[in-house]
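Notes from hallway chat w/ T.B., transcribed later so I don't forget. T.B. wanted the structure written out for a chain they're using in a teaching module, and asked if we could keep both sequence and structure tokens in one place. Agreed to drop them here.
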Amino acid sequence: MADGVNVAVTVDEDSVLAVVGNVRRRRIRRVVVWGGVVLTLVVGLALARARLDRPPPAPSYQTEVVDRGDIDETVGATGTLEAKRVVSVGGEISGRIATVEVDVNDRVKAGDVLATLDPVSLDNALTEAKGALATAKIEVVRAKAALDAASITKERAEALSAKGVVAQEELDAAISEHRLAEAEASRAKSERSLAAVRVEQARTNKAKATIVAPIDGVVLTRSVEPGNAIAASLAAPELFQIAEDLSVMRLDLGVDEADVGRVREGQSAEFTVDAWPGRTFDATVERVNLAPATTDTSAVVTYTTVLAVNNDEELLRPGMTATATILAERHAEVLRIPTLALRFDPSRGAESSGGRGDRNKGGLFSVPTRPGPPARKAETEIEPTVDGEALVHVLRAGELVAVPVTVGASDGRYTEVEAGELDEGDAVVVGMRGGA
């Protein structure tokens, strides 16, 4: 053609279809995404509206039953187990240990040999003392003979002086000789007595070379070995400690001054030791010391209280630390409530809950609180006190009722009800949990 140009364009049909398909898929994907977002918002708003419109769940109250039982007032203290009687055995004389016949934990009878000293020096001392005694006896005989001779001379001089045969000077000399002989005889007798005492002392020392048990018991400590030298010049050195029969022991407690007024002789007690977990041992208060045991800079004052302990099984040992509980007073078959009931306050909600109920005595109840005016201020301010007023809450006919009571003794778990509109079998509230 002369006047124009014809352009032929060839388009692939498959390419066109592919482009159109991609556009459609993108549009569908956007619709699905935005639709999901809108649906999620709608569902969320619906659930929130439903939750706001739903009434709050009724509270669940945890209860326990008012019953009768014993309430024990107790005093707690810690202390140390000791043998009823411990005797220290020492060496009464100086010397060198020759033998040791016992060891720790050995049982001994009174008179049993514990140890012996080297007897050589003691035997020598006894022999020497006996020799000195023999010499003293001879001296007594000599002095007596001299005295007899002086007596004869004096008597003769006196007779002759009476006749005027001898001068007065000779008589005076005879009398002086007689007096000297008497003094010498007296001295000889004293020396003999002293020598006899030394012999007995040497025999006693030899006997003390054998160290024996003074009582029946168990050897707790031994601090000597063969060959050791002991010196008893100032004080008898301690060689052994023997505990009297460990089937009966004592527990020394430090009772605080705030509690000592409630502790008396004859009260029963029980205690535990770490060596026997889960095991409880019985005891009896034997003595409460009048003088304080400790008064330190922290102003803590305790009084030593001694408990008698039966240890027939011999499970307990001296030195064990014990945690004891003394039964100060028992309130038998009194009306009582769980102490948790005194702590419950519905105005605090879950803050006052948390106690575990007795499955046999109580349970969980979902009940509405009784409508009406708020509790009087006097009631809401009542605090649980020993021998004072307190406020508990009771479920009656499915409603929560506040009941003022007068409380007495408490053992921690239970508290005595001395007065108030509570009866055995009432369900007192001890805790609260939010309902579903």
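Follow-up for T.B.: Residues 120-163 form the longest helix (44 residues). Might be a good example for the class.
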